[in-house]
From TrEMBL:
Pathway: Amino-acid biosynthesis; L-isoleucine biosynthesis; L-isoleucine from 2-oxobutanoate: step 2/4; Amino-acid biosynthesis; L-valine biosynthesis; L-valine from pyruvate: step 2/4. It is found in: Mitochondrion. Mg(2+) 2 binds at residues 259, 295, 299. One of its GO terms (biological process) is L-valine biosynthetic process. This is ketol-acid reductoisomerase (NADP(+)). It comes from Actinomortierella ambigua. The lineage of its organism: Eukaryota, Fungi, Fungi incertae sedis, Mucoromycota, Mortierellomycotina. One of its GO terms (molecular function) is metal ion binding.
Length: 400
């Protein structure tokens, strides 16, 4: 463990003793300025109760947040007592959301093609002809069509799904992709249905696991088309039904722009680029693979990032050695200035649909799988990630 990490841990222990609480969302929500705003007209429950929403001050900006305590299971069952929720696809999201809806005792059915997803659904208790159907049959039976096919399949199968979207039904997505980039996907919903979005902020496996632990994942909620006049109310209820805890209000466009931007940026694309660049310079200057990896990836993911996640970057800067602190304060703006133009270019590429077109073309190509494997192998074969395999084995938790 390097100087900065030792120092961080020492000071973390000290700071914990003087109460530097990890800012979980619930703690944040409790401490932030929360106001309860009745929205009688726009947000009435099926029982005619007036519902409340919360306005939370996030760093100076007021935002609307819905929470699952507004929808206990009995309320969900009442809201959807006349509905059949048809979940299309049994990938990570379809599986996680459908199992949570079933455990919430809602009337849910699955629609998927025969193959891996179908077999998985059968193995988890869905019964063909009872609550597991081919996609067109599920669309016919469903009043809420929850389109959790892969984004490429949503576009490919749109002409088969659309005829079943009859007046008064609800079309649900977990990504704004298909609707926002309609010029490229062809997904243009009929005008006489509700179109809503609930996007859990994590994989379907996490959606399921947190639900089983009695907690809810955070999610985004949006309405694209409100035909019934109750689209937001029903979207929030669906969000709670599929297992979210807090729902942040957004739009389809903002959801998809931020999602495509983030995963290409700091979540995966930018971080891999930074890791490799830092590692390469260390190796070129004669540092060993283990030293270069430890200073680049291991210390970041195992020590600093969890602390930053728990306490914020200001806390991290305040709780490291003065040497590390001086250097990080001097250098962060240089990295900012160098990367800002790349982020601008990335956002423009998301905004004008370039990223979507590339994704649709690449992901529906017949050689998709073999090309992907080549690109993943290039990352896996890089000395840095091969070094990572050896380093991870030496972690205390991986030793017998
Ligand atoms: N993964 C995440 O972290 C995440 C988070 C939030 C939102 N979302 C969104 O949730 C939605 C579903 O994501 P996912 O990760 O669960 O999707 P996925 O794994 O990419 O695919 C889900 C389903 O699509 C089916 N499918 C693919 N091509 C098909 C075709 N040509 N015909 C019929 N079925 C086909 C798959 O069936 P087979 O098994 O038969 O191929 C599978 O059941 C997407 O809109 C995604 O953007 C994902």
């Amino acid at each position: 463990m390097s100087f900065i990490a030792r120092s961080a841990f020492r000071q973390a222990a000290r700071a914990a003793a003087v109460a530097a609480p990890a800012r979980s969302f619930s703690a944040l929500a409790r401490s932030a300025a929360i106001s309860h705003v009745p929205r009688a007209a726009a947000f009435k429950a099926a029982s005619s109760q007036t519902r409340t929403i919360k306005t939370i001050n996030f760093g100076g900006t007021e935002e609307t947040v819905y929470e699952r305590s507004d929808y206990p299971p009995a309320k969900l069952q009442e809201t959807f007592k006349n509905d059949t929720l048809a979940v299309l696809g049994y990938g990570p999201q379809g599986r996680g959301q459908a199992l949570n809806l079933r455990d919430n005792k809602l009337n849910v059915i699955i629609g998927c093609r025969k193959g891996a997803s179908w077999d998985k659904a059968v193995s988890e208790g869905w019964v063909p002809g009872k609550d597991l159907f081919e996609i067109n049959e599920a669309c016919d039976k469903g009043t809420v069509i929850m389109n959790l096919l892969s984004d490429a399949a949503q576009s490919k199968l749109w002409s088969e799904i659309k005829p079943y979207l009859t007046k008064g039904k609800t079309l649900y997505f977990s990504h704004g992709f298909s609707v926002v980039y309609a010029d490229d996907t062809g997904v243009i919903p009929p005008k006489d249905i509700d179109v809503v979005l609930v996007a859990p902020k994590g994989s379907g496996t996490t959606v399921r696991n947190l639900f089983l632990e009695g907690r809810g994942i955070n999610g985004s909620v949006a309405v694209y088309q409100d035909y019934s006049g109750k689209a937001m109310e029903r979207a929030v209820a669906l969000g709670v039904g599929v297992g979210t805890g807090y729902l942040y209000e957004t739009t389809f466009k903002k959801e998809v722009f931020s999602d495509l931007y983030g995963e290409r940026g700091v979540l995966m694309g930018a971080i891999q680029g930074l890791f490799v660049a830092q590692y390469e310079v260390l190796r070129a200057k004669g540092h060993s693979p283990s030293e270069a990896f430890n200073e680049t990836v291991e210390e970041a993911t195992q020590s600093l990032y969890p602390l930053i996640g728990a306490n914020g970057m200001d806390w991290m800067y305040a709780n490291c050695s003065t040497t590390a602190q001086r250097g990080a304060l001097d250098w962060w703006k240089k990295f900012h200035d160098a990367s800002r133009p790349v982020f601008e270019e990335l956002y423009a590429s998301v905004e004008d649909g370039t990223e979507t077109r590339r994704s649709l073309t690449k992901n529906s190509a017949s050689n998709y799988r073999s090309e992907l494997e080549k690109e993943l192998a290039e990352i896996a074969d890089h000395e840095m990630w091969r070094t990572g395999i050896a380093v991870r084995k030496l972690r205390p938790e991986n030793q017998k």
